[in-house]
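Structure record:
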Amino acid sequence: MNITWLGHASFRIEIGGEVLLIDPWLTTNPSFPDESRAEALAGASWIFLTHGHGDHAAEALEIASETGARIACIHEMAQVLEDRGATVTGFGKGGTLQLDGVAVTMVNAAHSASIDYMGDGLSVAGSEAGFMIAGEGHVIYVSGDTDIMADMDWMGDLHRPDIGILCAGGHYTMDMERAAYAAKRYFDFKTVIPCHYKTFPILAQTADALVAALPEVDVRVPEVMERLEF
């Protein structure tokens, strides 16, 4: 299994027989090198969207068309994307998709969810979510955009993720200190990967505070397009 950070909150996860793209946002992502697009998208089989904000979902239709990958997201957003010609599997929080050697369960997040880039003004399509991705002996918690929430208590106890991909940039989501608090209080991660930082000046520019706050956890701070093996 391997995880590649594509910048901001975008990831490529090769697990089981699948290549999953999580919130792939490449073209206008200032962290992503344009010359790496083909490498980032190669073999993609599924696109998982945590919510509808442009820095997570604005390129989903284009990437799905380019790769042939199927989109999976919360039901209401699936309806919006299907109306625009995409092949989408809609599901809800607590629902699990059984793929080739990997199971993906949608879990709660605490953020907001809207679409403002499809020419119809600002609209709400479902709600924000995270994912528990289980396969190859690992469980990955993709937090999506969220703050600390009490739901993390049962999520950690039930799913027991060993890898946490945590938003940690602050302002719009948890910051590094809050992400560290959540990791220590609610989870027993062996590995934590921060995201949703460095992209814009308003966000945290380093993960130093997270690393310092989790001395007993393997906090990986990859460069964009760096492949992490597990």
